[in-house]
Design a protein that fits this description.
This protein has 103 residues and is mostly helical. It is 55% helix and 4% strand. The chain has a two-stranded antiparallel ribbon with strand order 1-2. Helix 1 packs across helix 2.
């Protein structure tokens, strides 16, 4: 899978989740009531919404990236195919010798 395709798989769903999370959070919490370390946060509502959205997006993207990281196949992790015979190796196996393989 290409790197740009993985980025799309990570960033697009996390963008949607961040939008929903921000809508739910700021439906319940007024930006004027936010406090940081006991002191009121002196920012405009628009700034609070913007920072909140990007924080939700970062957390959702981290979750999606962790999912992509954990679903790697053994060939991606080990950098080799466990099948000794080259004719039986799956397409894209680094040791298959075909065009477009990793090595």
């Amino acid at each position: 899978m290409e790197r740009s395709q993985k980025l799309i798989y990570i960033l697009w769903p996390s963008f949607l989740v961040a939008g929903v999370a921000e809508a739910m959070f700021f439906t319940l919490v007024d930006p004027a009531d936010l406090h940081l370390f006991g002191d009121p946060v002196a920012v405009s509502e628009l700034s609070a919404y913007t920072v909140g959205f990007f924080l939700f997006w970062v957390f959702a993207a981290a979750s999606s990236a962790l999912t992509c990281y954990l679903q790697r196949s053994s060939a991606e992790i080990n950098g080799m195919c466990p099948i000794p015979d080259a004719a039986d190796r799956p397409p894209g196996c680094p040791r298959s010798g075909e065009a477009g393989s990793c090595r």
